[in-house]
Amino acid sequence: MSEVIEAQDGEAPALAPQPPPPTASKRVTELDGLRGIAILLVLLKHGTLNATELTKGAHRGLSFPMHALRWLFDCGWVGVDVFFVLSGYLITGILIDTSGNRHYYRNFIVRRALRILPLYYLFLLVCFIAARDVPHLGLIWFAAYVGNVRVFLENAWPPLAVLGPLWSLQVEEQFYLTFPWVVKKTSRRALQRILIASVAAALLFRIALQVAKPDNAFGTYVLMPARMDSLALGGLIAIAVRESHPILQSRAIAWIAAVCGIGFFALWKLPATFLQQTIGF
Asked: What tens digit of pLDDT does each residue of 138-191 get?
């Protein structure tokens, strides 16, 4: 709340200057650190032997610290979810802050394309040259940014393992295909309601997929409608920051984080069951 500066020499009181609201150009160093932690989690998940892959005999041969580390590394998949929340927070903030600018759509699309597409298609070209004899490679799906849909339809990761991680990029780009238009055409209050509805819709979509295709766990993991809740939650945080929402200064945040943390550790080691594939994400 603005403070009133005492009037001096009969002058009218003036409002104390307030710090500027967050803008798209402001870099948050702490988020860079969080991004680094997320990268490390994913690398540990895929670069080490996971606890679930160890035999019972191997488990017995591990010391307690190594045993704990193996189980910790196995939860590294959550790093992808951290990226989704960060992306939702940063991109929504950029869109809100620039929605009144000239060439709003063009600037967003061009900047996003220049940041991602050159390296992405160079990577696909290298894959095509190095693995052109691999049957059913399906690079056309990835070139069209729908490789995650192919993973779901095939109920399997791509035959070329290095293509697997691209699903997360495809989820983001599919979400952001129409999101700039939504931000531009709706009020901030309406945008909040849309994002809250997206969180609920993602959970309902995962439940529907598990009921309809219980033997296909890929849909709930790689399809955009099933993962948009993380992106939407990041967007809600971006709105709350710009409105200086009281909950951000409340102790309730700590309690919410604690409950979510307990819930995560209660669910993350479950096998690919209905509970993990729905609420667990």
From this structure: 899 999 999 999 999 999 999 998 999 999 999 999 999 899 999 999 999 999
Q: What is the pTM of this model?
A: 0.81
Query: How far is 176 from 169, CA to CA, in rounded Å?
Result: 11
